[in-house]
Amino acid sequence: MIANLGKKIRLLREEAVISQTELALILGLSPTSKGVISEVESGKKLPSVEFVLQVAKRFGVSTDYLLRDDIPIRK
């Protein structure tokens, strides 16, 4: 289960002081795609594999960290 994926992404984004709109642009999405980021962070939408890979690369974390709930959210 990937219940903590959105929380982990939000934490990484906030630690980097990046808005949802900025993250959308960094990931190659349109500026209006901040809604996608919001839905992923809130757990309303499951992201694509490509999205997870891009987030992991951008923030220097493993996909295991993002996808595995047994790996605690770092603070």
Question: Your description of this structure?
Answer:
The protein is globular. The chain is built from five helices and no strands. The longest helix has 11 residues, at 5-15. Helix 2 (20-26) crosses helix 3. 19% of the residues are buried. The protein has helices spanning 5-15, 20-26, 34-41, 49-59, 63-67. It is mainly α.
- Total number of strands: 0
Assign an overall shape. globular
* Separate helix tally: 5
Element-level helix/strand string: HHHHH
State the low-pLDDT regions, or none: none
Helical content band: 55-70%
The major pleated sheet works out as:
none
Beta content: under 5%
Amino-to-carboxy terminus distance: 21 Å
- Structural classification: mainly alpha
Indicate the mean pLDDT.
Answer: 91
Radius of gyration over C-alpha positions, nearest whole angstrom:
11 Å
Write the layout of secondary structure elements.
Layout: H1 5-15, H2 20-26, H3 34-41, H4 49-59, H5 63-67
Helix pairs in contact: 2-3
Task: Output the keywords.
75 residues, mainly alpha, 5 helices, 56% helix, globular
Brief synopsis:
Helices cover 56% and strands 0% of the residues. It is mostly helical and 75 residues long.
